[in-house]
Amino acid sequence: MADGVESNGVESNTRQIEASVVTDFSDRMSYGGYLDLGTLLAAQRPISRPEHHDELLFIIQHQTTELWLKLVLHELEAACAYLRADELAPALKCVARVKHIQKTLTEQWSVLATLTPTEYAQFRNVLGNASGFQSYQYRAVEFVLGNKNSKMLQVFDADPVAHAVVKQALEQPSLYDEFLRLLARRGYAVPSAVLDRDVTLAWTFQPELVPLFASIYANPDEHWAAYETCEELVDLEDNFQLWRFRHLKTVERIIGSKTGTGGSSGAPFLRRALELTFFPELFAVRTEIPG
């Protein structure tokens, strides 16, 4: 070290900027320009007056959730396309990414849970009837995973873009449908009634599929690709249910048994969502495995 400058380029606890670092962005793409940070960071507009300190938390919590849901939908749609093309490996890569996003989304509830009932009550009235129930991306994700409900379309009648996204997810085969069709193309005995079902309806338990999955689980080495995919789908549902449960407990923590801003019964309505399922046969088959 000489003249107070350490060999690692730090002086007086200040890191020196390397000469090669670009600092002039008058005619270059910058980080903020690429990400359009001006638009993104201007999108948080609390409406409480006087502005409540915690409304920014509430807005950012939900906006970041919507950004992650955008990516989840992007990945699930790609996974469906890969399955249709008999490309299982890249489909599973997409699913793996979704699983990591799900964990992030679930952990996010702990941030919102720092909002106390008293704090939330001081600005809740400005939400009007705005509610996460109206998230079209969340609904599209549910539909892509097979938990469809055509009655939900009416929620988005006033928003043509949202309506189109949800309608498309309603009318296309789900991720599970695409997986079962791939299995059929690979010679597995998937019942024709399952393959020809009305894909706009919510998936319901199909007991005739359980023996098929039991044979896959009985010989995982012989059916490794199918076996691995089954377990990846189970992970997806597990993660989704954990998110739903954390949502429920956060709501109970903050508003107790009050009705939701969107008109639902609140916590009881969310609790019933825990009864909804995506891949019931993949859980039922566990009872059939010997040992």
UniProtKB/TrEMBL annotation:
Keywords: Dioxygenase, Heme, Iron, Metal-binding, Oxidoreductase, Tryptophan catabolism. Pathway: Amino-acid degradation; L-tryptophan degradation via kynurenine pathway; L-kynurenine from L-tryptophan: step 1/2. Binds 1 heme group per subunit. GO terms for biological process: L-tryptophan catabolic process to acetyl-CoA; L-tryptophan catabolic process to kynurenine. InterPro entries: Trp/Indoleamine_2_3_dOase-like, Trp_2-3-dOase_bac, Trp_2_3_dOase. It comes from the Bacteria. Substrate binds at residues 58-62, 120, 124, 261. Its cofactor is heme. Heme binds at residue 247. It catalyses: L-tryptophan + O2 = N-formyl-L-kynurenine. It holds the Pfam family Trp_dioxygenase. One of its GO terms (molecular function) is metal ion binding. Its EC number is 1.13.11.11. Homotetramer. HAMAP family: T23O. NCBIfam families: trp_2_3_diox (TIGR03036). Heme-dependent dioxygenase that catalyzes the oxidative cleavage of the L-tryptophan (L-Trp) pyrrole ring and converts L-tryptophan to N-formyl-L-kynurenine. Catalyzes the oxidative cleavage of the indole moiety. Belongs to the tryptophan 2,3-dioxygenase family. This is Tryptophan 2,3-dioxygenase. It comes from Agromyces mediolanus (Corynebacterium mediolanum). The lineage of its organism: Bacteria, Bacillati, Actinomycetota, Actinomycetes, Micrococcales. The gene is kynA.
